[in-house]
Amino acid sequence: MITGEVRMQAVPDRLPNKQCWMLFKVANLDRLQALQRGLLYMNSVDYFAKLEGEAGAALRKDELENVYLKLSSGLRDGVVSELVLQVEGQDEMILNPETVMTLNLPRPETVMIYCLGSVSAAHDGKIWGLENGELRFSERFREFGTHVLRITNHAEFSRRLSQAIEAHPHLYNSPFFEGGYGQVDYVDFSNYSGPIGLFRKPIEYAWQREYRLCFGAEPEALNDRGALELNIGDLSDITQITTIESFTANPMTVIPRKYRIVDGKPLQVCD
């Protein structure tokens, strides 16, 4: 095994989709009531990559969470790619086809994420799980907790969050954060080579419909467990809490509509 440290700049190949029509959080009631009071409890990508022994660890752990780039040899789209190692003053060494190289995010223990669920369209315009205009939420959400908090005013939530971030003396931004928020893309990583970053996850997690927030927090901002407790102010006026049973038992009906901007105003277009 070859190990070492590589310094690199961010190479974002695209920005995550930021549009969404519904944001929600599934957890036990006490956690959601704390969120309703304004507490965002955020863990690092390093925490999720190494998670062991906690309740729900199998649902939440992702060993690729702190990985920014994954490169491997192989045949893709009719093109054979190979990894070559070059040491100064020596000949190139072609690595074997099973070689996989991963580069981690800088300081992953300070890269904090907050995970929400969403109803949103992917880059191809499709809504995951939508069938015949009906959207059902996976029964597996029950494994996350007993209740669901829904954010009813996204713009106001964003304003309060932004205000709290700007006022905090120990938070930071980075090009590696790809804009800091957006919908997660779900990818088959079995034969994948390329950027992963904060907004790509394995396809088996697609049912979670994740929309995440991320930013950096210097060590002095973290609690003794390495988490960030960010208070953004009371959210009771823009949130609603319901049971997970009613959430998963009642499908949503999605009605697509098209609009054209006429004289600065949206006008619905009929097909």
For the record, give the distance between the C-alpha atoms at the N and C termini, rounded to a whole number.
59 Å
Overall radius of gyration = 21 Å
Mean pLDDT: 86
Considering DSSP H and I runs of 4 or more, what fraction of the residues is helical? Answer: 10-25%
Succession of helices and strands = EHEHHEEEEEEEEEEHEEEEEEEEHEEE
Largest sheet: 9 strands, antiparallel
**What's the count of strands?**
23
Class by helix and strand content? alpha+beta
Task: Write down the overall geometry.
Answer: globular
Q: What is the helix tally? A: 5
Poorly predicted tracts of residues? none
Portion in beta strands? 25-35%
Explain this structure to me?
It is a single chain. This protein is an alpha+beta fold. The chain has a domain at 22-62 and 106-184 and 203-269. It has 5 helices and 23 strands. The protein has helices at residues 29-36, 45-50, 57-60, 154-167, 244-249, and strands at residues 22-27, 39-44, 67-72, 74-76, 79-81, 84-85, 93-94, 100-104, 111-119, 130-131, 134-135, 147-151, 171-172, 181-183, 185-187, 194-195, 200-202, 210-217, 228-231, 239-243, 252-253, 258-262, 265-269. The strands form 7 sheets. Strands 1, 2, 9, 12, 13, 14, 18, 19 and 20 form a 9-stranded antiparallel β-sheet that branches. The longest helix has 14 residues, at 154-167. The chain is globular and about 65 Å long. The model has no long low-confidence stretch (mean pLDDT 86).
